[in-house]
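Q: Start with the shorter request: fold the first protein.
A: Done. Sequence, then structure:
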Amino acid sequence: MIPDCKTNFLYLANTLQEKYLTFYERLEKVLNECSIGYDLLPQTKDVWAVDYMPVQVGENYFVQFLYDPDYLKPAKWHKTISDVDSICKSINISPVKSDIRIDGGNVVKSPHSVIICDKVFRENPGIKEKQLIKDLYALFQVDKIFFVPQDPHDFTGHADGMVRFLNEKTVLINDLSNESPTFQLSFRLALHNAGLEYIEIPYCPDMSSNDSAKGLYLNYLQMKDVIIVPTFGIKEDDIAVRQLEDLFDGFTVRTVDSNEIASQGGVLNCISWNIKSCKEFIER
C-alpha cells in the first residue's frame, strides 16, 4: 500500500480553483514553497477529490471503488458526482474497478495496514461481512484491515477525520473529551483491539453547524517530508501545529487557513488526491 508519506505528486479538483479561488491561491503558495508538484484534475464536479478518485495500492496499481455515497442520494446532489472514468483517462490512469461502495476518505493507509469506518458494511448490504473483508484484503494487498465505529456526528462516515497513522503501531486521533462517553469507549476499544497505540491532538468542532469541519486538524495533507495543517483562526491552531511539529520531527510543517472549505464539511486531506508517481509521469 502507498501511504501518504510516500506520495510525491498532488492532484486537486479543478473545481477547487473555480469555487474557492482565494483559498486555492493560499494553498498554491504553500505547495510551491514546499516544492510539491501538483496539477488540476479536469472535468470535476466537486472539490472532494480523495473520495471519488481511485485508491493507489502500488505505483502502477489503482483501485476504483464505486462512488455512490448515501449522503448524495437526494437528486439535487447527483450533479456533483464526477465522471471518474473520464478523469482517469485524461491523466492516463487505468484503475482496477470494484463494485464495493467506499469513499476514498474512508481509507486511511499505512504501508501494511488500512483503517476503515464500519460504515462500509452498511454501504454494502448485499455482500456478507466475511466476503467483504476478504475482497478488501485482496484489493488493498495489506496485512491488516482495522475497522472503527463511525463518528455519529460525521454524516460522511469517513475515517480520515477520525484517525491517521503516525507509524504502523501508533495512530493520531481527535481529542474526544467532548464526545459522548459511549462513542469514546467504543472508538478507543476498537483501537485497543487492533493493537494500536494512540495520541490525541486538539479537536475543536464548530458546534453551531453539523456540516462544518472547522477545528479538525487531523485532516492535514501529508506528502513525502511535508505536513500541511489546516488552521481556522482560533486559539487551538498554535497548540495543534506545535504538537504536530513535535510528532513529525524532520518533516516540514506548514499551515494554510482553511475556513472556506471547512465550512463545506472537509479540509485538506478531503480535497487532495496525492499519489506516488514515476518521474516520467510527473513531467508529462
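Q: Next, the second protein, separately.
A: Sequence, then structure:
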Amino acid sequence: MPPVFSHGDLRLYLLHLLDESPRHGYDIMQALSERTGGTYTPSAGTIYPRLAKLADEGLVTKTADGRKSVYAITDAGRAEVHGRADDVAAIERGLSDSVRLIADEVRSNVQAAMKSLRADLAAASAEERKVPRTPRGEDPRVAARAQLQRAEAAITEFRGRMRAELRTHVARGGELPPAVVDELAATLDAAATSATGALGPAERS
C-alpha cells in the first residue's frame, strides 16, 4: 500500500487538525490513526518534531497543560490551511479511500467465512441424509447427543476464529463499519435458518 501521506501532506494535515480545535500531542496521534482507519499510526518521534517545526514557523503555539502540552493554530497557520483548502480536501479523499479499502477487506473476510460456514452446513446435512437410520436397539437420543456435541464444537470453532480475526483487526487500529457488522448478523441469521430447516420436524416419542 502506498504511503498515506505524500510529501508535505502530513504537515498540512496537522495544521488542519489544529484548525478544528487545540489538541494534545497524543490526541493528534489518535486522530490520525482514527481518520486513516488504522493504516497510519504515527509515533511520537514523527509528530512532535513536526509540531516543533510548525511552532518555529509561527504557525502553531505550544502551551503547558499540567504535564502535557497543548498545541493551537495561529492566525498565520489558519490562513495557510484556508488558502490550501483544495489540498486539504484532496488529502481527506485519500484518507476516505484508505478506510474504504479496509472496510472492503473486512467485508470480504466476513463473506468468505460465511460462505464456508454455509458450505459446511450443507455438506453436513447431505451426509446426514446418507446415514442409515439408527439400528434397532440403539437409543436414538444417544446418537443425537453425539451429533449435538459435534455441532456445538463446530459453532464454537467458528465463533472463536471470527472473534479473534475481528478483535485483531480492531486492535491494530482498523475500523469496523456498521454495514459490515449488519451483513455479518444477516448472514449468520440466514445460516441459522438454513440449518434449522435442514433438521426437519422433531419426532414425538
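Q: Describe the second briefly.
A: Helices lie at 9-20, 25-35, 44-56, 75-83, 85-130, 140-171, 178-199. Residues 102-198 form one domain.
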